[in-house]
Amino acid sequence: MVSEQIIECVPNFSEGRDMSVIRKITDVIESVDGISLLDVDPGKDTNRTVVTFVGPPLQVVEAAFNAVKTAAGLIDMSKHKGAHPRMGATDVCPLVPVAGISMEETVGYARKLAERIGSELSIPVYCYENAAYTEKRRNLASCRAGEYEGLKKKLADPEWKADHGPSVFNPQSGATAVGARDFLVAYNVNLNTTSTRRANAVAFDVRERGRVKREGNPLTGKIVKDKDGNPVMIPGSLKEVKAIGWYIEEYGIAQISMNLTNISVTPVHVAFDEVCRRADSRGLRVTGSELVGLIPLSAMLDAGRYFLRKQKRSTGVPDSELIRIAVKSMGLDELGEFKAEEKIIEYKIRDKEGKRLVSLSLESFMNETASESVAPGGGSVSAYLGAMGTALGSMVANISSHKRGWDDRWEEFSNWAERGKLIQNELIKLVDEDTRAFNMIMKAFKMPRQTEEEKKERKDAIEEATKNAILVPFKVMEIAFQAYELIEEMVKEGNPNSVTDAGVGALAVRSCIKGAYLNVCVNTKGLEDKEFGEEIKARAAELNARSEKTEKQIVDKVLACL
């Protein structure tokens, strides 16, 4: 099951005072379909603006390129002054994997963006961090050394030839660094002390860089140096973590302020627990924590699962419950309300997308279906039936995981509930996807057809949209069929008091698959590509027959228990 791919882009533009320039840049970013602009942070002293936007990979690359092109035409680096290091109108442009995409894939998109900026805009580009072609260029500071004023000389040096674009000084635009890096989470842990020194002691315990090694007394002893005269460091316990202690007058407490530069190496929940352990060893207590900025949904769900596992509780619960557990376990609401829709990046995107069927109440969804509108229709309802049927299987697994006397089996049932939840989530996405597929067909039919070229474009669009409208319900069938394994296992091994719930789940999944099959059949009728249509229809018929047989077997087992 593949999640939607989401990439974050955080370009830094060398303009922080003229908001009309910034607006023109952000306007071209937002003009790309599928892009959500999340934040615009201008700085007058630095004369620099940090923009954050997200979306699917191809759209992010397009929006980033348009932004770099616009900035190149509006910002004159020969006149730029600011406190922050910089070498170009678009100084840096990192891509960050957020969901459903690997770092390796993100690197590929970053390099494609860099190549396009260099070739189409004639701007020298250096690739840094994970997108770097050589180890020497991984560090952004190395790529930017000498800044704009030293760029002409740097480009003339064969060792610093641009990775993409001409190695020729561009006085107006300078150069741009394009990279791929991990998602950075700014995370602060609250302590029951006002002492910055004690907070720093904990920070040095955990941060990767650690603390300076001293002879004798660790606080006042002579600093130990290596053969080159550099201080020898005692590494801290957390990799990919930067940390410092400080006092926050507004709250009257000291905090450990951390940058988690790679949450796949050190997740938020691991950092929290380690700070708790180190603080406790120094007579301090962690009272809570706070997130600064946004965090990926996966990080919050991982945290919720982590704390539930510590309690030996099922992790196959709704995302909202996992988030609630994470918030309460790490005290993320100590200093203020934790609003998931504002702090979790995927939810922030979702709220910008507008109306979704799955966001409606059950009654509203029913009324929307019953209205004069032809969508949502049988396809969306079928997907929803499948999600509800699977949810019943997950429910039995969750109930069984904490049944009295079955404590040693909690993880077995938790794993089944997790599998059910994955199926539920995929089917819920397809509720809206089926309606979108229908709307694509309607949009294609409304295309102009005055000229021969327009007629061909309309015909091709209808054919493509019809194929999609066949594949969506077929995907519903494939995913829903996976739920039978969960449901059958719950009938055999789950809490016997809930066996009929599992049976109803099987009936709902059967209705889902049969309903989706009807949609596959009806949409193949108008397809020009008969071979494609017949192949999918035959596969769907075979899956429908297997579903009917499997559902009967499960229901027979349920009836035998009654």
Essential attributes:
18 helices, Formiminotransferase-cyclodeaminase, Chain B, domain 1, 562 residues, four-stranded antiparallel beta sheet, Alpha-Beta Plaits, Four Helix Bundle (Hemerythrin (Met), subunit A), 52% helix, single chain, 14% strand, alpha+beta
What does this structure look like?
- The structure is a single chain.
- 52% of the residues lie in helices and 14% in strands.
- The radius of gyration is 28 Å and the shape is flat.
- Strands 1, 2, 3, 4, 5, 6 and 7 form a seven-stranded mixed β-sheet that branches. Strands 11-12-8-13 form a four-stranded antiparallel β-sheet.
- The chain folds into three domains: 175 residues, Formiminotransferase-cyclodeaminase, Chain B, domain 1, CATH 3.30.990.10; 164 residues, Alpha-Beta Plaits (2-Layer Sandwich), CATH 3.30.70.670; 207 residues, Four Helix Bundle (Hemerythrin (Met), subunit A).
- The longest helix is centred in the last third of the chain and has 36 residues.
- The model has no long low-confidence stretch (mean pLDDT 93).
- With 562 residues, the protein is α+β, with helices and mostly antiparallel strands.
- Helix 15 packs antiparallel against helix 17.
